[in-house]
Amino acid sequence: MRRILHVDMDAFFAAVEQKINPALIGKPLVIGGSGDPTKRGVVSTASYDARKFGIHSAMPMRTAYKLCPHAVFLPVNYEAYSRVSGRIKGVLRKFCPIMEDVGIDEAFLDISNIDKPSEEIAKEIKLKIIDETGLTCSIGIAPNKLLAKIASDMQKPDGLTIIMKDNIESRIWPLPVRKLWGVGPKTEVYLKTMDIETIGALASLPLNKLIERFGESYGRYLYEASRGIDESPLVTHWEPKSTSREITFEKDIGNWQDIARTIAGLTREVADDMKQAGYKGRTVTVKVRFSDFKTHTRAKTLVVSTNLVDKIRMAAFDCLKRFELKKKVRLLGVRVGGLEKV
């Protein structure tokens, strides 16, 4: 039987900041954007002391400030977090070479062939990570990635949860449907209109009804996931499908020259990223989010893949011409997809 272990660092960005500056321990700490809650930006991580006030990731910084004005607000320091993440991933690879790196603060390990009890492996990993970084993590172990990820979130912080197939009905089904990997806020709201609020309630629906409501692919996924079925392998190596850059303005802009100048700058950054990583791409997409938060995209596919800034910029401007810029703009983004190695 497969044994998949999911490691999820506890409030990672905040924990790293507290390690750098112990005076922050015990204080509500919010990491996001430039660190200024009076400016635009979203919360990347909130310490557990901040979460008591209802602050959570992806929340606007201004909202977080209203909820807890006495919190400490800090900017995102990816360089510091990446260094610590590298040390953590180094620890994990020593335990098991079959690792899927799924983010700066989490990873899956396939421990099926390690001749030790699951709990013993998890405890050893926790101790090694503490020894190496001084940080805690929560670990979930289950027969597949889906259940392991759910399990790692069940006893945070510093938790250890093991889910077996015969635990699904008693431990997974009572959970809110939002806990199911792949169920976002929109799907959650839609499911509530169907009186579906728990994973178990979702599992009670027949396959044909889910396909009728959500389509063949997603409907089948919900049917299987709600029953704890997931045969997906660990992806130990992957190639990026796209690369992008975007910017949210401090104040909405409406001047064409400002918009054009920003698009030109973003395309230059994307082209530089592609050259450094050794990729070319074919599909150029421009994203515009207007002042009313409505977001639209336009795309152009090139005949030949490229990483030349002039060609990417020309395609981006072709896309930009297809927008009706009657409202002020809040965010601009440029993405190049269909990447292939040079």
Give a written overview of the molecule.
The protein is α+β, with helices and mostly antiparallel strands and 342 residues long. Among the domains are: 13-78, MutS, DNA mismatch repair protein, domain I; 175-225, 5' to 3' exonuclease, C-terminal subdomain (DNA polymerase, domain 1, Orthogonal Bundle); 242-341, DNA polymerase, Y-family, little finger domain (Dna Ligase, domain 1, 2-Layer Sandwich). Helices cover 39% and strands 23% of the residues. It has helices at residues 12-20, 48-51, 61-67, 78-95, 118-133, 145-152, 168-172, 185-193, 199-203, 207-214, 216-225, 256-277, 309-320; strands spanning 4-9, 29-31, 45-46, 72-74, 99-103, 106-110, 137-142, 160-162, 242-253, 279-290, 295-306, 329-337, 340-341. The strands form three sheets. The chain has a five-stranded mixed beta sheet with strand order 5-6-1-7-8. Helix 4 packs antiparallel against helix 5, helix 10 packs across helix 11 (216-225) and helix 12 (256-277) runs antiparallel to helix 13. The longest helix has 22 residues, at 256-277. The protein is globular, with a radius of gyration of 22 Å. The two termini are 40 Å apart.
